Backbone:
């Protein structure tokens, strides 16, 4: 048994078989082979080596024609490595005598060489490690070939263990079979964390290196409450955790009874409780939990993991499906909110030393108008099918907002001319997540129909902390007094002007902050579907004046730790049994 | 008949040493001979036909390589390899036999 401590990012406990995903998003199958499979596996190795060599040969020929011998030489060298008989002998030895799987044997041998090269002095030599990694990937790709098991193809319940899940990998997760997630890197607010919360599955991130200690198929426990991962648990630990899983189920049943009841405070203030979704299928999770609508429909999944831009029809199909399922309930669609580095169709940005301060989100959209227009047209067309609202992310200046609205106006005009149906009165709003926008709220109120506070980015930009960097992640907290003041400013400005304001960041999905936010005057919240029942329960137990007292007191405190402690105490007074 | 064993020492010239492309030419040329060929640098001995092992030598400019071949064409092999190293791996086509080894598994 081995206990590993990480950062808890999505609550709950999961017990199951490990599925280990390497850097390239492959599933590395079991490390060891049954004795009688050796010959067959050796055949597989040779076929993979031959196929890899054929690929390199093709690359070399192409490069030679296009760029000349100088550039082709590197592929000639790769080819020579793939034909290296000593290398093959070593790999074969590991398979035959240690019963390693070919995948594992290839990784082991090549990584040993990579390490040796890294230790040689001089840039020319140490860079060879990258050539080795390249070859490793190529052989692995061929070894896994048809059997390459992408996350989307998992067909039995598993816990996914990975170095880090990229957005496209998480986009491919099949929520039906993924019971839990654990990653070596990442912090609270990383993509893995958001997706895990969205799917309502336990997750632990920032564990540090551990994948070498676990093989596919091992029994693993992911404890998303304590931020712990337990490899090969003993019987006693297993029994204890099985009991906990049972308890979770009964609590979930209790919360489900709230489904038909409105989110209303004890003094009769109705709170709008919406769900955040990433994929169309999650709409059902929102409806099942009694959400009033979709407060944030992230559209990034349409762009990820593909080599071309999604067509207008692909966008439209995804939006219309959600709009129709939600009928009259509002659906807020957020336009593309990605960095240029995540889109394969765009050239790699040249000066992106600080991606979070760089060409991302609305900035990227405004620089790639055709791509942006395609999405806007699709959203407009979908507005004919339901109660669609459109939201621009990362707006920092009024000029940005106006430019975005101008592109939208163009798209409307085009549709109008073409006689295509859409909702002419579709509400248009913006995310409030750049501190500059908070400061300028009194001007923004005249130009949008609604606001939604995105706490994840707002906190990151306010506190200058990268939430996915585990070395500084602890500085990232919604409870920082400066963050609370920004939120207060935003809510006050919007309420004063009578423009609806909601919040769709992770902050409002945590029951600890519910009273504070209601006390600050927020009347609409959009949370991850799994958090809807809990937040509703808090709303239905508190009164507004009580919340106002909590907010008032919290704002007098001067540091995040005291604020957190205070908010936890207040929540415990209302809900002695809440695990905070 | 006794198997001929041939040994020669050659110094690496040029700017970058036995890096990727030189190592590729070196091992490819070695593969075109039947003889077993070893190359020793700084006390480390590797198979001259294995590019990956030749690279681990990290032979810098000025390093001495001891080439040792045993087999029917040992003489030819050592001659060709010494010529290649002395030429600073400069020529695209060292021998036609070197190119012929390309692509064979």
Residues:
């Amino acid at each position: 048994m081995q206990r590993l401590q990480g950062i808890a990012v999505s609550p709950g406990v999961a017990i199951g078989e490990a599925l280990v995903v390497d850097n390239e998003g492959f599933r590395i199958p079991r490390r060891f082979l049954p004795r009688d499979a050796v010959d067959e596996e050796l055949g597989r190795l040779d076929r993979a080596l031959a196929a890899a060599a054929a690929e390199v040969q093709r690359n070399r020929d192409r490069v030679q024609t296009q760029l000349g011998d100088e550039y082709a030489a590197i592929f000639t060298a790769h080819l020579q490595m793939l034909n290296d008989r000593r290398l093959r002998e070593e790999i074969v030895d590991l398979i035959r005598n240690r019963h390693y799987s070919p995948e594992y044997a290839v990784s082991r041998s090549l990584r040993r060489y990579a390490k040796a090269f890294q230790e040689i002095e001089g840039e020319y030599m140490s860079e060879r490690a990258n050539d080795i990694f390249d070859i490793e990937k190529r052989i692995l790709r061929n070894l896994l070939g048809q059997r390459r098991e992408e996350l989307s193809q998992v067909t039995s319940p598993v816990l996914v263990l990975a170095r880090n899940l990229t957005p496209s990998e998480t986009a491919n997760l099949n929520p039906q079979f993924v019971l839990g997630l654990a990653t070596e890197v990442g912090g609270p607010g990383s993509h893995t964390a958001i997706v895990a919360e969205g799917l309502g599955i336990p997750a632990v991130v920032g564990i540090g290196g551990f994948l070498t200690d676990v093989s596919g198929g091992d029994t693993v426990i992911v404890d998303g409450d304590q931020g712990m991962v337990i490899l090969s648990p003993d019987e006693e630990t297993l029994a204890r955790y099985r009991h906990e899983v049972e308890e979770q189920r009964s609590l979930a049943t209790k919360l489900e009874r709230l489904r038909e009841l409105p989110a209303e405070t004890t003094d009769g203030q109705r709170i709008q409780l919406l769900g955040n979704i990433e994929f169309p299928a999650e709409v059902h999770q929102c409806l099942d939990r009694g959400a009033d609508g979709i407060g944030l429909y992230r559209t990034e999944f349409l762009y990820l993991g593909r080599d071309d831009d999604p067509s207008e029809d692909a966008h439209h199909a995804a939006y219309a499906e959600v709009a129709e399922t939600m009928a009259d309930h509002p659906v807020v669609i957020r336009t593309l909110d990605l960095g240029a580095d995540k889109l394969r169709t765009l050239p790699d940005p040249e000066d992106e030393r600080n991606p979070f301060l760089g060409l991302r989100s609305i900035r990227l959209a405004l620089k790639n108008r055709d791509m942006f227009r395609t999405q806007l047209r699709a959203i407009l067309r979908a507005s004919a099918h339901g109660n669609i609202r459109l939201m621009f992310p990362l707006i920092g200046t009024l000029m940005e907002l106006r430019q975005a609205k101008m592109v939208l106006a163009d798209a409307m005009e085009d549709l109008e001319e073409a006689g295509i149906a859409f909702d002419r009165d579709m509400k248009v709003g913006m995310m409030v997540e750049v501190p500059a926008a908070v400061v300028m709220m009194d001007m923004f109120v005249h130009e949008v129909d609604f606001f939604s506070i995105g706490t994840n980015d707002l906190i990151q930009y306010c506190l200058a902390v990268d939430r996915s960097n585990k070395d500084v992640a602890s500085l990232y907290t919604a409870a920082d007094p400066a963050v609370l003041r920004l939120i207060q400013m935003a809510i006050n400005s919007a309420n004063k002007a009578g423009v609806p304001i909601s919040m769709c960041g992770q902050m409002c999905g945590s029951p600890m902050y519910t009273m504070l936010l209601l006390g600050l005057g927020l009347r609409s919240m959009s949370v991850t579907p799994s958090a809807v029942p809990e937040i509703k329960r808090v709303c239905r137990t508190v009164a507004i004046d009580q919340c106002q007292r909590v907010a008032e007191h919290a704002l007098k405190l001067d540091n995040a730790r005291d604020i957190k402690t205070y908010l936890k105490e207040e929540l415990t007074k209302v809900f002695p049994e809440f695990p905070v | 008949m006794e198997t001929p064993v041939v040994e020669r020492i050659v110094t690496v010239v040029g700017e970058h040493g036995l890096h990727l492309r030189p190592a590729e030419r070196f091992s490819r040329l070695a593969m075109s001979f039947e003889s077993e060929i070893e190359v020793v640098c700084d006390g480390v001995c590797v198979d001259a036909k294995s590019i990956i092992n030749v690279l681990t030598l990290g032979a810098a400019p000025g390093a001495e390589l001891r080439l040792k071949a045993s087999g029917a064409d040992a003489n030819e092999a050592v001659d060709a390899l010494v010529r290649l190293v002395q030429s600073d791996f400069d020529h695209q086509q060292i021998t036609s036999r070197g190119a012929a080894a390309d692509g064979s598994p």
DSSP finds 22 helices and 16 strands in chain A.
